[in-house]
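input
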Amino acid sequence: MSKSGMFADIPVDVGITYEGERIRKPAMHVELGGPDIKEKFELLRVRKPEEVEDEKITVIGPDVDQIPEGSKIPFGIYIEVAGKELEEDMEGVMERRIHDFSNWIQGFMHLNQRDTIWLRMDKKAVKKGLNLKVVGKVLCRLYKSELPIIEKIQVTFITDPEEVKKRYEEARQVYEKRDARVRGMTDDEVDVFYGCTLCQSFAPSHVCVITPQRYANCGAISWLDGRAAAKVDPKGPIFAIPKGECLDEWAGEWSGANKVVAEKSLGEVTRVKLYSAFDYPHTSCGCFECTTFYVPECDGLGIVHRDFKGVTPTGLTFGAIADSTAGGRQVPGFHGLSYEYMRSKKFLRADGGWERIIWMPKEVKERMKDYIPAELYDKIATEEDAKTVDELKAFLEARNHPVVSRWKKEEVAAPTAPAEAVAPAPAATMPQAVTPTAPQMAVTPVATLPEMVVPAGGISFIFKNVKIYAEKLIIRRSKEGK
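output
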């Protein structure tokens, strides 16, 4: 698609060639939502035909060309659709296509989903005439073209902070209602899982496997949404995955999922265990709501969400940890999560589940309060309890966290296999690692891992099938030129 077709009146190009386009801060005219803004959301609702004025586009508040350059503002996208075959159960999956279609617009970047959206508009595109009303036109046309089941559509953008705040709370209530529908269903009672490749423009080897007890990493697509998507768009990016033979019931490995993941990742990923962060973990793109990170000194897992602005006890920020998680790779200990998967009874079951979680931001802990086992709640540290690994270990020992029993006291043992140094993969599949901000990073590995990747500036050290015990491993940045 381009300006010569259905978008002849659009001032910028439109097409899948712009998927994956990133707008860096120096090129940004405006940031809509994003990590520095609390209130942001996108929501799609199914309405009665008489409630929708077809292709009506409304902007509540100033449009982007009336907003000072460099601004970061609260933002909401509210889409209403109608059609005789549409059902409420289809809302979530149609809403997720906002991400897909927005990224077809030259000079417009859309990341994440639901109440974590992060959008930017390019200065040059705005000067050409791109604004929210133009984006609305494109969305209307793409939705009706790609999803003919939609007969009428209207789009509302909100930039007025007070209106965003009001609708933000309404949107979160809708998300919770959607998520609650699938709770109680189990992976054992269905014959089909669903796969999603919507994010392959950002992570070519990533394939999301969606089950009743393992929500999509983005938190926007449940098993029911997957079923609806396959019905709405049979040839689309969300599709059925026959389960096949169960290869590992406890860790969640099925032959059908392995087969489809291998095909859709072009052989980059051949096995996936859905309930483990260590052994053939599920891949991640970059839209995950939270991510785990391994703390080798404690042989436990921390969890951090994308809105966390501080530094974890390992000395790394969310951004640095996300670089080890994203890109469609399988990096043991680094595992993208949705909040809904954290509510599942099969949450990281193969690794010990909640008994393996040792740290998380207070905001996440309070959000998960009803799902963290009561006997563990006070034993999981937050940023208020531990800011360093030493403080974290002391906290865990004082609270007698279950992970303490895992700690080993053996002497240093030699690796059973040599370390292999490899050059990093292309940026599309292996994002550049962010070096810790601390002058040195002390690591005491105490667990056996099938593979552990340690990013270190220009190279990554991959340790395969090794068991390492060490008092301290110090990784220092070398002096420039040496």
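quick obs: Confidence is low (pLDDT under 50) at residues 409-415, 417-451, 454-460.
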